[in-house]
Amino acid sequence: MSQRLFSSLKKGSPTRQFLKDFSYWSFVIASWVPAVIFFKEHVAELHTIKGASMYPFLNTGYDESLTRDVCLVDKRSPTQGLERGMLVSFRSPYHPETLVVKRIIALEGDRVYTHAPYPYPIADIPAGHVWVEGDNADARKTLDSNHYGPIAVNLITGRLTHVLWPWRSRGAIHWEMWKGRTRVVRGWNQGG
């Protein structure tokens, strides 16, 4: 029995060639896995925008089709140089396994005049935190800081830089042009 098994592995046999090719390609693929994981965790990744939270800025066809925007998330130094209006991805305070996309409304030291269901009319943003909100005017369609308060900056995993899909919406995200609906007093509590 063992003689039959090893006879199929003789030099030049199709089985031997298959095993040789399989071993080679398995090694090539396995050697790229750490590089892909590193890239996805520390450089960039694609994020699909689900739901109406960021409508109308993202998912512009939310009411008309099932198309979802696919965005590029830059993960290099995600917490450095944050500014009001930036779109960021972060771990949900309610479900840390879930990545969420929202817009930064206020930075540490700012004062925010909140919307329902936040329990207080005013929120002062503490050090190491930001206030994030969805773009949808209907507060029932966005779960944001008006539900869970300011988020810790260390929950932020990346910044959205480009829309890649759908084709008609593709291009760089110009968050600098954003005009918010939430009243923010900038630097209300800076230095003291």
TrEMBL record:
Primary localization class, coarse: mitochondrion
Example GO biological process: protein processing involved in protein targeting to mitochondrion
The keyword Mitochondrion is assigned to this record: yes
Residue ranges of domain Peptidase S26 in the record: 26-113
CDD domains in UniProt: S26_SPase_I
Membrane topology: Single-pass membrane protein
GO cellular component labels: mitochondrial inner membrane peptidase complex
GO molecular function: serine-type endopeptidase activity
Keyword field: Hydrolase, Membrane, Mitochondrion, Mitochondrion inner membrane, Protease, Transmembrane, Transmembrane helix
Catalytic residues in the record: 53, 102
Entries under InterPro entries matching the protein: IMP2, LexA/Signal_pep-like_sf, Pept_S26A_signal_pept_1, Peptidase_S26
Location relative to the cell: Mitochondrion inner membrane
Transmembrane segments: none
Family that this chain belongs to: Belongs to the peptidase S26 family. IMP2 subfamily.
Name of this chain's protein: Mitochondrial inner membrane protease subunit 2
Provenance organism: Monilinia fructicola
